[in-house]
Amino acid sequence: MLLDLSGIQKRFGGVTALRDGNLAVEPGEVHLLLGENGAGKSTLMKIVAGMERRDSGRMLWQGRAAAFQTPAEAAAAGIAMVHQESLLAPHLSVAENIFLGREQRLPFGWVNRRRMVEQAARLIEEHHFPLHADWQVGRLSPAAKQLVGICRAIQHGSSLLIFDEPTSSLSGAETEEVFRIVRTLRARGMGVIYITHRLEELRAVGDRVTILRDGATVHNGPLAEVSTDRIIQYMVGREMVSIYQRQPLDPGPELLRVEGLTRRGVLHEVSFALRTGEIVGLAGLIGAGRTEACRAIFGVDPVDAGTIFVEGRAARIRSPREAVAAGIALITEDRQRTGLALRLPLAYNVTLANLGEISHFGVLDRQAQNRVTTDYIARLRIRCSSGRQAAGRLSGGNQQKVVIAKWLFRRARVFLFDEPTRGIDVGAKAEVFAVMDELARSGAAILMVSSEMQELLQVADRILVMRQGRISGELPGRTTQEEIMRYAALEPEAI
Amino acid sequence: MQRLLPFLSLIVLFVALAIASPHFLTETNLSSVVRQTAVINTMSLGMTVIIIAGGIDLSVGAMLAMSGVLGTMAMESGMPVPAGILIGVLTGLFWGSLNGFLTTRLRIAPFIVTLGTLGIIRGLTLIITGGLPVHRVPQSFAFLGEGNLLGVPFVLWVVVICAVATHVVLEHTRLGRYAFAIGSNPDAAVYAGVPVGFDTTAIYALGGLLTGLAGMIEASRLMTGQPTAGNGYELQAIAAVVIGGGSLHGGEGSVIGTLIGALIMGLLSNGSDLLGISPYLQQAIIGGVIILAVTVDELRKRRSHGDG
User: Fold this and answer.
1) What are the angstrom distances between the C-alpha of B134 and each of B45, B75, B83, B121, B143?
2) Which of A214, A369, B173, B278 reaches 20 to 30 Å from A68, CA-CA?
3) Which of A339, A343, A393 is closest, CB to CB, to B184?
4) Does A364 lie at the interface with B, CB-CB under 8 angstroms?
5) How far is it, in rounded angstroms, from Cα A117 to Cα A92?
6) Which residues of A touch B195 (CB under 8 A)?
7) Can you list the domains of chain A with their CATH numbers?
């Protein structure tokens, strides 16, 4: 046994994060760790990696009792973690990040930069990563950053690697690459703990599975012996519809039309239309220009050419402010960075985009604010203690609902959802879809960018596919993943 | 509960001083504390809003000097006292707006912009005056800083009115709400359609306006326009905000907190005078208090946010 945890408990102030965490990992296996957000997966892993200390419970590492006080101690013992939100130094190079804290030392504290770069380059080459040792990490895509994190973890020569949602920001091809790496590591006899929210990718890598719910281990065993539906039941603790299926409705008049949207080097002649009541999927690989298209429509990035029509009228959109005024909402993929003011109360966030409606001559009506907030908390079933709770303290799914509430209150009619379910657990995903469906039914038009094709197939009425900054195809909602992939990945002549 | 800590410290300090020195609780001393702290109080109100919006203004000390100088020069040239005061206030408003305009238009960190304007304003003030103080001001100008109204110092009324107004702006107007949003997450504010550029400029302008007023109070107390006035005041104003629970990361702070912060510093300095502690040591004590206050506040936040 490589790692054996039993009866692990951990409290943060008044909140119990772990009640009874159990996990046993053998060398040479990929062990999936599953559970909804807040189930205690990350806390359990932080305890293993020396980032948190347990309150009670037993931890055996390679047969001996262990309690790592710092990440450095855990790393020295052979445990490495690839973080979800890559903990990287954006101003340093790829090589410097890979070796951060373990630089090749020369006398007098000098760093052997040349050796470091060489070793990094070798590591990158070995795994065929699309990286360069000299690149500055801050300029990399989320996917590439993830790869740097993986390099960092594997160069330590560890015997246990923990992956915390390694593929949540990756495209299909990159995900395959991560799987390949995981399998290589397993073949070398390493233990791998793999945390994921993407249920469809379980079977591609996992050997055994441990499921946490509300801070306790509720199931463990070989993956082959449990069905995916069963796994979902263990995770949410109740029967639920495993797959959301939207009832399509007849689309109404056209709400948004984009014609010839071009941003040199990024977008080429992007044209499409959205009608009321429609949910249109936007598929493509990472870097295909989906997020960029949303940003351009919303006025974040300037465009070189193209016209945007809202309800048939050409709209001048040169800033998000003008986009908002035109009735467009962008729900970004990075809620924490661009969606919410995390330290401010939920009520402030819900009303931020439409303070005009709850103020008279610039003076806020706090009662109206609280009424509006209470109303949306109920309507969107936002789980929170009150409207005064800081937005940052809600779970991912509830944060997403706050962002949606903000745009509902702004009475936006065109919704651009960029990866709306990223980092959200299964139960909350279905709820977000239900909200999108309600929106469509109440007359909104929705564009939904997603890298999870399964999700698009469930929700979208039709699916646009982007490739290298162009719309490469339009498919009906009931298409197949293979069909989407053909348009997303292949040269037009090859389709 | 722990929010009350600055307030409790203030009360403890007050009681301790009342016990330690027989001169503390006298009318003369208390009104001199009020007069002494009025300048920093007024300035730090504006600084509160700026810091909540995630900014900082290092030029307020220099701005204060120029306001005082231009205001008193206007009086020297024969303008009535209220007009002179208005000119001082407008001077602050002008430089505040310029600070805001530069940070938002040039997209340069406010620390840098206001470090630059600090030099520019101070330099211009010295050029205008030739480095000499402006002395010939009408006697009635003293009323602003030294007069009494309804039995209390007139400046107390001024500070209270400014404080209430700033509080209302922060907590009950759209501009105040946007200040919190911009300070907490500027990107989210832009994406929500908040007029970030315009409002940021307005916030710096408000800070400048209050600084201009503070400059006239200072000039009235000295009965001169001092081109070298206000040296280092920017740090005191920032300290008041921070002791009162404001965060230099933006999104946090309050008028009441800032007033308490400014009063704690004022009492420390007054108490040290009364107890015969050297002014050199005073500076060190206040420096220590700043670090202590922020440490306590940080610990409180860490505990209440506790990650999981």
Assistant:
1) 27, 10, 16, 17, 18
2) A214
3) A343
4) yes
5) 12
6) 321
7) 3-236 (3.40.50.300), 254-494 (3.40.50.300)
**CA B78, CA B84: separation in Å to the nearest integer?**
9
B306 within a domain of the structure (yes/no): no
| Residue pair B17/B29 in contact by the 8 Å Cβ criterion | no
Smallest CA-to-CA distance from A211 within A39, A350, A357, A391 is with A39
B109 is a domain residue: yes
In the predicted model, is pLDDT for residue A372 greater than 80? yes
Chain B contact present for A287, CB below 8 A = no
Which pLDDT belongs to residue A240? 45
Q: Does residue B307 have a pLDDT over 50?
A: no
Q: Higher pLDDT residue, A344 or A421? A: A344
pLDDT over threshold 60, residue A233: yes
Query: Can you give the residue range of the structural domain that contains B272?
Result: 2-18+25-301
The number of folded domains in chain B is 1
Are B193 and A339 a contacting pair at CB < 8 A?
A: no
What is the band of B148 on the pLDDT scale with cuts at 50, 70, 90?
confident
Residues of A in contact with B172 (CB under 8 A): 363-364, 366
A-B C-beta contacts closer than 8 Å: 89
pLDDT: which is higher, A245 or B238: B238
Hunting for tokens 């009104």 — which residue is that?
B31
Q: Are A100 and A116 in contact (CB under 8 A)?
A: no
For residues B219 and B229, the answer to whether their CB atoms sit within 8 Å is yes
Query: What is residue A169's predicted lDDT score, i.e. its pLDDT?
Result: 64
| Minimum CA–CA partner of A412 in chain B | B192
Q: What is the mean pLDDT of chain A?
A: 84
Residue B308 placed within a domain: no
Expressed in percent and rounded to 5, the helix, strand and coil fractions of chain A are 40, 25, 35
C-beta separation of A32 from A227 below 8 A: no
Query: Tens of pLDDT along B260-306?
Result: 999 998 998 888 888 888 888 888 888 888 888 888 877 777 665 44
Q: Report the gap between the CA of A479 and the closest CA in chain B (Å).
A: 33
Kindly provide the ipTM of the predicted complex, given to two decimals: 0.81
Rounded mean pLDDT of A406-421?
Answer: 91
Domain containing residue B278: CATH number: 1.10.3470
